[in-house]
Structure formats: structure tokens, C-alpha cells
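pls design
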């Protein structure tokens, strides 16, 4: 069977736009990234999503409209991607569509994870079959529904001999522990805590920038040890895996409630402390999986561009080789978009994916649901 083209579409917890990745995947699962770009949200949609991601603002009409508008924004991004590559819709086998997570509460009974971005609308607007709702089967089987990335990371990044760790620093940070391809050891992975989400909130609040470029503002401040200890005392960090979280847990209110316990702290010092929170929670998780043998950690996601954050991670992991996924042939910015293209491919192939040791699901499953163009 000839290789087929798949598009991965993802909007992460940073709300920085829609990542769209055009791939070509062979019947054996070999992946070629053909093109990728980030489609910025219209400002009204970004504001709607921020509102919906904040607990207490759940208006059903607003949710329903954002569900459609988000899908329309993805469809526009897909059309741009096709035009950039002189392709029409018939050249694409399927779109792997994640949507925008509005709530993620696997800890409730029953637990749930809610993504908006109507897959039927996306299929109708693009004329391309859509595979979506990747988290729901895992949750139905008792799993957290997240993270999904570890099984993909193992497919793409695992070595034949050594164990590797992939650390994705998006709005939320997570790790994947990848045993050698020849090993029967299960794949592990979980969310370690906030990645960029609190850093982005704080710099947006004080400087009206979407993010702290290179971590420069954080580097200008001094870590407030009392605040850091308070942040790290949150029960999430002590929970054992499987575990997952989202920006609806590590909210601006979560931060401000803890800031109220202290006298005025300089904004730059708060930013420095938030960066240290991400660095320490991430590296503590990584350290718990290190063995005596040399192990390489590969960084991906937007946090890979935060040079101050990477410097701190290297300082906290002095005996670890810290690299980016670029060295393995996958651009740090497009790993997650490629994940959803691959998940669509896996669904089309009828593959069952084993996330039992990652999410706590009761058995391997075929993840996703099919939304036809016709």
C-alpha cells in the first residue's frame, strides 16, 4: 500500500493558535513531515476559549458557538496548509483532530475530558474525513484520557538499546519514559505539572506579551523560596502516576490565591519562581526514572525555546544529556501536531494502542472516532 497523507491539528493548553502538520505515513508507520505552521486564533475566538477554560464561566450557548467557531478556524488553517502545498482535499486521507480542551477532570466520578471543535463541521468544511475524540475511549475504560503522547513517542523516538525520556513542555509539561523497542517493559508517561501556562499568564498580565521570550524576564528576577515551597506543596505534585492535569487546574486563580499568603513580591521575582516551579517539578519527575546507565532526555514543545528554563533544567540534571527532538529528526514545535496525524493513521489502520501503564485504562484500545466528509 502506498504512503498516505494525514494532517494533524492541535490546539494546546497554551492557547497560542492551532498547530497544523502535514505528514506522509507509510503502511509500516514511517512518518515524513511535509509541512507545518501555526494558525493564529482570531482574537474573539482566543477570548472565548480563555473564558471557557476558566471555571465558573460555563454558558451553554457560548460553549456551543465556540465549538463551531473553533472547527471553522481549524478548517481555514487546513485550507491554508493545502494551498501552501498545492494540494486539494482529495490528497488527504484524514485529519487527526484534537480540538481545544475546555475541561479535564479524570479525578471525578465519573471522570471526563471535554474538547470542543465540532468534528462534523470540520469534515463538512474541508471535504476531508476526520478522526477525533481520541481521549474518550481511554476514559470509558477507566483511564485518565491523557497523556496520549507516550505511545507515539515510543513509536517515533524509542531506541533499540537504551531507555529514553521525552519531556514535552507545552502549557502543561509531561514526560514519556520509553523503554528500548526490544524490551517488554511498559511505556510510562504522565503530566508533571505546569509548563508554560502560569509563565504565560503572568507575563501577559504584566507586559501584555503572549510569552516571556527566552525566559529573559524570569532571568531578571530572583526565586522567592517561600512562594516556591507553597506552590510545590500542592497535592498534585505528590500524586503517583497515572495522573494528568490541565490549565483549568493550574489557573491564574490558583496562583493568586497562593500569592495572597505573602507580602508584595516583585513581579519579576514571581516570574522567576514560576519558571523554577516548572523546572523543579519536571526534573524531579525525570530523576525518579533515571537509571545508573547513561540516559538521554529529549525536550520538545514551546518550552524548548525558553533558554532560561532549559538552563535551569540542565543545572538540576547535571549528569543527564539534555537534547531536543530536533536531533531525532522531529522539530520541537511540531511533535504534538504530528502525534494527531499519527493517531488518525493508527485509527485508519485499525491499531489498538496500549496506554494501560500510562493512563490506567483497563486494556489497550483503538482510539478515536470517525467523522466522514460525506
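designed seq:
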Amino acid at each position: 500500500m502506498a504512503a498516505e497523507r494525514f494532517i494533524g491539528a492541535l490546539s494546546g493548553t497554551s492557547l497560542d493558535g492551532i498547530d497544523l502538520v502535514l505528514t506522509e505515513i507509510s503502511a509500516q508507520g514511517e512518518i515524513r513531515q511535509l509541512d507545518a505552521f501555526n494558525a493564529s486564533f482570531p482574537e474573539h475566538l482566543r477570548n472565548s476559549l480563555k473564558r471557557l477554560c476558566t471555571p465558573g464561566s460555563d454558558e451553554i450557548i457560548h460553549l456551543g458557538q465556540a465549538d463551531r467557531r473553533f472547527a471553522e478556524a481549524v478548517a481555514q488553517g487546513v485550507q491554508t496548509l493545502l494551498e501552501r502545498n498545492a494540494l486539494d482535499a482529495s490528497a488527504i486521507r484524514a485529519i487527526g483532530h484534537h480540538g481545544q480542551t475546555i475541561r479535564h477532570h479524570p479525578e471525578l466520578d465519573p471522570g471526563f475530558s471535554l474538547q470542543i471543535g465540532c468534528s462534523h463541521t470540520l469534515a463538512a468544511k474541508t471535504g476531508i474525513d476526520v478522526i477525533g475524540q481520541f481521549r474518550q475511549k481511554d476514559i470509558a475504560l477507566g483511564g485518565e484520557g491523557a497523556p496520549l503522547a507516550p505511545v507515539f513517542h515510543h513509536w517515533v523516538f524509542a531506541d533499540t538499546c537504551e531507555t529514553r525520556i521525552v519531556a514535552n513542555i507545552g502549557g502543561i509539561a509531561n514526560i514519556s519514559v520509553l523503554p528500548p523497542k526490544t524490551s517488554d517493559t511498559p511505556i510510562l508517561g504522565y503530566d508533571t505539572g505546569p509548563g508554560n501556562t502560569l509563565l504565560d499568564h503572568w507575563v501577559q498580565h504584566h507586559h501584555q506579551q503572549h510569552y516571556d521570550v527566552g525566559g529573559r524576564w524570569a532571568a531578571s528576577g530572583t526565586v522567592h523560596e517561600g512562594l516556591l515551597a507553597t506552590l510545590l506543596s500542592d497535592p498534585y505534585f505528590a500524586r503517583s502516576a497515572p495522573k494528568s492535569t490541565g490549565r483549568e487546574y493550574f489557573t491564574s486563580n490558583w496562583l493568586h490565591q497562593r500569592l495572597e499568603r505573602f507580602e508584595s513580591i516583585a513581579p519579576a521575582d514571581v516570574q522567576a519562581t514560576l519558571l523554577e516551579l516548572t523546572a523543579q517539578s519536571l526534573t524531579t519527575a525525570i530523576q525518579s526514572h533515571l537509571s545508573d546507565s547513561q540516559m538521554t532526555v529529549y525536550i520538545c514543545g514551546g518550552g524548548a525555546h525558553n533558554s532560561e528554563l532549559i538552563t535551569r533544567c540542565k543545572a538540576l540534571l547535571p549528569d543527564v544529556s539534555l537534547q531536543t527532538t530536533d536531533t531525532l529528526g522531529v522539530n520541537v514545535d511540531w511533535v504534538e501536531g504530528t502525534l494527531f496525524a499519527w493517531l488518525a493513521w493508527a485509527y485508519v489502520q485499525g491499531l489498538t494502542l496500549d496506554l494501560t501503564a500510562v493512563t490506567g485504562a483497563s486494556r489497550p484500545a483503538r482510539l478515536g472516532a470517525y467523522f466522514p466528509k460525506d
